[in-house]
Amino acid sequence: MHSSGFLRRPIAASVLMLATTTALTSFVPTRARAETAQTQPKYSFNIPAGSLSSALVSFSAQSRIQVTSQAPTLAGHTTTGLRGQFTSSEALARLLQGSGLSYQTLGEHAFQIVPAPKAANITLGPVRVGGSFNAHESAIGPGVGYVARYTTAATKTDTPLTEIPNSIYVITKDQIVDQQSQTVQEVLRYMPGIYSESLGTAAWGSGSSNTSNGGNFTQRGFASTQYVDGLLSNSMASGEPAFIERVEALNGPSSVMYGQSGAGGLISMQLKKPTDTPLRNVTVGFGNWGRYETTVDVSDKVTKSGSLRYRIAAIGVTQGTQTDHVNYHRVGVLPSITWNIDEKTNLTLLGMYMYTPGTGSGNYYPLAGTLLRGTEGYIPRSRFLGDPKYNTNGTKEAKFEYQFSHEFNKNLEFQQNFSYQNSQSFFNDTFGSGLGTDGATYSIYGWKGGLGNDTAYIQKTVALDSRLVGHLNTGPVQQTFIAGVDYRHIDQDAALVYDRKEMTINIWDPIISAHPNYGAGTTDTLASYTYPTKWDQVGVYFQDQIKFKKLTVTLGGRQDWYDYNYHSTYSRKSTSLGNIAERNLVSPEREASLAFTWRAGFTYNFDFGLTPYFSFSKSFEPQYGNIMADGSVAQPLTGNQLEAGLKYIIPHTNVFLTAAAYHIKEHHVLESSPDVVGEEIDGGTAVSKGVELSAHANITKDIRVTASYSYNDMRYTRSNNTVTKYDIYGNNLGKVPLQGKYINASPRNMVNMFVDYTLPRNIFYGLGVNFGVRYVGFTYADTANSFKVPAYTLFDIGAHYDFSNISSSLSGLKFSLAMSNLTNKRYVGSCATQQCYYGQGQRIYGNLSYSW
Fold it and tell me: Mind telling me which NCBIfam families this protein's record contains (predicted)?
């Protein structure tokens, strides 16, 4: 079957997903019955004596088998612990011995703890165990296998995913580890509706693009926003996978609960925090391009009772990249401590310091030679088109955070999150601008940070979110309401210095021998920009989740006030470039406004696991610092979305399927001015509409799957503007209407699947393998739709081995190997008019991990 024809047809993809659903529905129960009759495999357990709830968490983590219970059932129970190799049934029986409790099976990969048989007629409401028997922990913990069923990200309350009328996709810790993701872009590459690697290797080559403010990825075609532990983050380091417990993609508007965020959605990340049970892990990693990495992750009790616990995660990594002279280095530490002050009061303190002294730069290339064949073929991915003498790029970041909660009674709780972060970025390098008509001469210019020591940005961010969460039951109606206020203040000092003296290199033989000392003796070509910025935002929000039998209605609203102060200074002195005299321009700007956003939706949970839902939501995002070509301040982005979908959990399994259809409209989208180079204009209204299908499944305890299909049609639907069309050398071919054009760098079709399979232990003794495939459809290189960036398909493979299956003395020792872009395919991630970004070539990464 020819794959490209299928991938262009969303209806065909929908049929395939339906067929997959049917197959899974019929396969899982049969497999469960077959395995029940077989001898259960044995697992290596190392569970210390202590509380029964903590022991069952360890059981779940070490066997990858889900355990459910109702918290009061476990209260006050202890266990003598367990060490050695046992089947899951044997292990549970030993842990529950003497407790007066028993268990029952839920499919082949889940158990439910119940009272002894004499009380078996009691109906229990199961609460999933992910990292703790506390529901809040399960909603922010690592998840079990590839499936998570609870979240706090969408509603700021512990809510099942099936009771939220929006698309939410959770990337669990197990999935991150199995895929050996090294950046937040790689973490998100298998998620529906997200295009996370449009800049290809530039994700490595820029400190800011690696993790800052969404990491240069898009959701449903719109720029994404990044939140860490529920607070807005402009962090350049918080997206480090070694520090992440889980990642959630909230596709669609989320302004009601978070304030400023784009219409496409936001990425919510949870940093690692102290665990209920001891955790000790070290890893040593290696890979191609000279990668070496080590991580440490340790968590334990400080007090005997466990009321005070700590965790320390740390990383050190160095590597090259596929591009010459572009290297990556990072060291960081994330300490945290949790204090259960009493049964109703909890406090978590967290700090982070991350230093990334080198990320390199210069990963973009001219259109001719990358997207299109050049005069001498294609430019190698290893070629560096800059000046190696001026090639520094890095970041420093410090962060402090606390999370506090207090339950006044069973009906009312107070929660507060606070974060302060100080981020700095520095660089001194060159950038390319324009390929000559000879197809070889490439112009480059120098630039650097202008705040001293090559520092370009210093940004201090304060964020505070305080809320009351209430629970009210009135007859058959159950309500969870929330009322809160959040505040953020950002203080940024920024300065850039450009050296407009043109240097040229031959892209087929890039030898640089005459670049002047940067900024010395060339004052006639220097241009400097300074733009200190301050902005404040205050939001008051409310939400009510009303549950009546199987129907859940979610209503919410938010009022935001924001104040923005922007003071830009531009200075340029030139006697050699166009005979332009010295020019100074000062542009003080202040913008103060308010906005109201709201959402409403419902879900209906059928007994057989199917949940249809529908919702309407609005978004709001100020376009800070964007001054239009006519000198006016850019209008805030405002959007709205209609979404309808289905969520389906196959009964008695861990198979979670979703389908969503959406229509998003966003106003005041900015575009490059066709008349003034470097300036922007209001592009009008953009519409994104599409379909997303996803599957997250622990089919058995040894087979885990994630798969998705995304179709997104995104274009300008209302605009009076024109845009300039270019040829491959940047020559102006005239203006064309913007209305009706597709948004550039936004693929219409994306399909992916990742499968991890641990082979039978009695034959392969702990060996597991995985395989992934990723298809990204074509995109356009610019808003004029001058050229198409071709579609591409990539393959990923990997393997892992658990040495505990050889001997219990090797328990905790594991080896993993991952290879992305197996065939080393050369492809272009995206283009922006005349510059293109190569995608990542074959990357090999190995990891030796030891837990004790």
Answer: TonB-siderophor
Q: Rounded to an integer, what distance in angstroms lies between the CA atom of residue 795 and that of residue 771?
A: 8
Pairing of the two strands 225-228 and 231-232: antiparallel
Hey, is 139 helix, strand or coil? helix
Local confidence band at 286 (pLDDT 50, 70, 90 cut-offs): very high
Nearest to 287 by CA among 211, 181, 380, 184: 181
Residue 596 has pLDDT above 70, yes or no: yes
Separation of alpha carbons 575 and 277, rounded Å: 69
Q: Rounded to whole angstroms, how far apart are CA atoms 813 and 46?
A: 13
Q: Are 571 and 524 in contact (CB under 8 A)?
A: no
pLDDT score of 711 more than 90:
yes
Q: Rounded mean pLDDT of the chain?
A: 82
The pair of structure tokens assigned to 768 is 């597991």
Q: Answer whether 647's CB lies under 8 Å from 149's CB.
A: no
The alpha carbons of the chain give a radius of gyration, in whole angstroms, of: 27
CA-closest candidate to residue 146, choices 750, 662, 758: 758
- Pair 197, 839: CB distance under 8 Å: yes
Q: How far is the C-alpha of 236 from the C-alpha of 696, rounded, in Å?
A: 29
Query: How far apart, in whole angstroms, are the C-alpha atoms of residue 140 and residue 148?
Result: 10
Pairwise CA distance, residues 774 & 136, whole Å: 34
Q: Which of 587, 461, 443 is CA-nearest to residue 529? A: 587
DSSP per-residue letters across 533-591: EEEEEEEEEEEEEEEETTEEEEEEEEEEEEEEEEEEEEEE--SSSTTPPPEEEEEEEEE
Quick check: 215 and 197 in contact, CB under 8 A? no
**pLDDT tens-digit map of 543-558:** 999 999 999 999 999 9
CA dihedral defined by 628, 633, 634, 637, rounded to 10 degrees? 180
Query: In angstroms, rounded to a whole number, what is the distance separating the alpha carbons of residues 707 and 715?
Result: 26
Strands 225-228 and 265-271: parallel
Strands (E), 289-391: 291-301, 308-320, 327-342, 345-358, 364-366
Q: What is the dihedral of CA 495, 499, 500, 505, to 10 degrees?
A: -130
List for the chain the helix, strand, coil content (%; round to 5).
15, 55, 35
Q: Are the C-beta atoms of residues 40 and 89 closer than 8 Å to each other?
A: yes
Residue 276 sits at φ, ψ, to 5 deg, of -75, -30
Q: pLDDT (tens digit, 9 = 90+) per residue, 7-53? A: 334 434 443 343 444 344 433 443 333 333 344 677 777 787 777 87
Determine the Cα–Cα distance for residues 60 and 66; give it in Å rounded to an integer: 6
Model pLDDT for residues 324-354, shown as the tens digit of each residue: 888 889 999 999 999 999 989 999 999 999 9
**This model's pTM is above 0.85:** no
Cβ atoms of residues 507 and 435 within 8 Å: yes
Going by C-alpha positions, the residue among 399, 246, 394 that lies closest to residue 334 is: 399
Structure tokens at 452: 């001293």
Nearest CA among 293, 299, 295 for reference residue 280: 299
Report CA dihedral (81, 86, 89, 92) to the nearest 10 degrees: 10
Report how far residue 769's alpha carbon sits from residue 128's, in angstroms, rounded to the nearest whole number: 27
Nearest Cα to Cα of residue 385 among 396, 399, 401, 374: 374
Q: What is the mean pLDDT of the segment spanning 180-203?
A: 83
pLDDT, tens digit (0-9, with 9 covering 90-100), for 208-258: 333 333 346 889 999 888 899 999 887 655 678 999 999 999 999 999 999
What was the pLDDT predicted at 211?
33
Paired residues of 503 in beta bridges: 444
Q: What is the dihedral of CA 737, 742, 745, 750, to 10 degrees?
A: -170
